[in-house]
Amino acid sequence: MHNITAWTIIYLVGLHALAALAYHYVLKDGVLGRMVPAAARRLASDDHTS
Question: With 80 as the cut, is the pLDDT of residue 49 above it?
Answer without folding.
Answer: no
